[in-house]
Design brief:
Layout: H1 3-9, E1 11-15, E2 31-37, H2 46-55, E3 65-70, H3 76-94, H4 108-127
Antiparallel strand pairs: 1-2, 2-3
GO molecular function, one term: peptidyl-tRNA hydrolase activity
Organism: Flavobacterium bernardetii
Domain Prokaryotic-type class I peptide chain release factors: 2-128
């Protein structure tokens, strides 16, 4: 992942934010939309692209566009900073490869303890039965 190249590939669009805001809401475009084309990115290699497409498939459109929005702040610049930070955090989380699980056996002592507990439980249950003379 090459951060400098990825930064240059980000496309931004300013949109009018929805919700309450009084007279200001109809004049100011403070909501920021980040658009990133995963398929044509030069900052990611093929393995990283494939990993992103599988892990972020719910966030990527059919045209291989990753679209993120932010309208938390009234400032367009702050929203842009927030969305860039979120984008790179999302990429870092998605590109982490999980460790391969190594199968382990339970110890001999653990197996013996489990069997002893089962025998004890069975004895308790058999002690609850009515005696038949």
């Amino acid at each position: 992942m090459k951060v400098e190249i990825l930064n240059s590939e980000l496309n931004f669009k300013a949109v009018r934010s929805s919700g309450a805001g009084g007279q200001n809401v109809n004049k100011v475009s403070s909501k920021m939309v980040l658009i990133f084309d995963v398929a044509t990115s030069q900052g990611l290699d093929d393995a990283e692209k494939l990993l992103l497409q599988t892990k972020l498939k719910t966030k990527i459109s059919q045209e291989n566009l990753l679209i993120l929005t932010c309208d938390e702040d009234r400032s367009q610049l702050k929203n842009k900073r927030i969305i860039i930070k979120r984008f790179f955090e999302m990429l870092e989380k998605a590109l982490v490869k999980p460790k391969k699980r190594i199968a382990t056996k339970s110890t001999k002592g653990a197996n013996e303890r489990r069997i002893q507990e089962k025998k004890k439980a069975g004895e308790i249950k058999s002690g609850r039965k009515k005696l038949d003379f």
